[in-house]
């Protein structure tokens, strides 16, 4: 853990919440009354992770439909999202659970190929897909729940991948614009918050550098092994084509990112010119970032920490705020980093009404000079070494995924950095959450006792409130996730939900974890069990009945 002198890179260290030198500081319990009345509390999911129904009612194939069935070895348990948690058929029950919890907003995504099965308007609209999302939106509004819609959470129409390699081609911009305009036209009278892209950094890094996401390009593509687990609903089937691992990680990530930013900017331009005045909504982009803390007090490590954020968050945020990439990227990447034309710069600059931030964890960062003979690619261009320990002390306790250490103070530093660096934007925390491993040796009763998750949300909310008290304009917070779901390359091996999903016996029953009850009481401003007593209240033997939050 950082010592007190080094804990804050961007502000003073007089804050009592930040003056801690252990991994488990004493932090008070948060209350709903600590936040403004108009502060939005919601929960988030995405289509491929929850909907299922991958080949029904005219839906077309997405890259993830093909990838998970053709190359299951890239998924930790060899699974796929063909069924996921079957929200396509259970959405009315799920909306009722949102209402029961008292959440004000539901962030979900619209599957491109459920609306345009052939990827573009000329290939035809899917009326069943439009009806599904109309029904979902209307069901939310009936219960007083605001829909927040993500337009691209990584599911590219497979036909566009085959035709011109998806986001590697500038042609994707036109097809994406056709898709989003259909969404604005069909749903914009009721959707007042749009997110064009979700975590474009993750899509770019995992798909075009590491090869772990479709289209699985990059020199360092890894195979995790096809360790199929006991999930009968999610076993893979033979796919229509093999996945190529060709690619140039020195250029392709930057090309893909450039096309993503242009697609975003054109979508915002369409919304602002044709729909925003009439429909009265807002539009932005969601980006993920860890907080990067300098490993030492040296200037080179401080510069490395700033550079690390530039290469993750700034890669996508700087263009839509300033019209160009961060200077550190221009310096390190050189001519491999695409240029915006004068017209594109005008289009891209200030192409947002709010910034969505997904925060999960933090790392220490130190300078790592480029070594002679090293290839130039996204990873070496950063010239950074990431670590999770300083002087033998971890930056935070572990969670269910190796990449996720619990570092609540990082959210304070991150949103404060965004305020100070990017002109004091309106911010929504569009994802924040923690996972536990999917331990099938536990019965359902034991699986519901997720005190770590309660502590995680409590502590992050307190640090977020502290940032708001210092002027950061955070307007909302979305839990990741409402349900245990399909977690991309981790499959069903980890659980992020505040609702437990029974995958093993095929029922997909939703059981509220202790965190769901905590959220319900928090939002209703009812007394909750103090966190220091939660562990004592846990039924260690898993005895007693399993209670469900009834949907009606």
From TrEMBL:
Gene3D superfamilies linked to this entry: Glycosidases (3.20.20.80)
SUPFAM superfamilies: (Trans)glycosidases (SSF51445)
Signal sequence extent: none
Key words, A-Z: Glycosidase, Hydrolase
Residue numbers annotated as active site: 431
Gene Ontology MF terms: beta-glucosidase activity
Keyword check for Phosphoprotein: no
InterPro entries, A to Z: GH, GH_1_N_CS, Glyco_hydro_1, Glyco_hydro_1_AS
Family: Belongs to the glycosyl hydrolase 1 family.
Name of the protein in its database record: Beta-glucosidase 17
Native organism taxonomy: Eukaryota, Viridiplantae, Streptophyta, Embryophyta, Tracheophyta
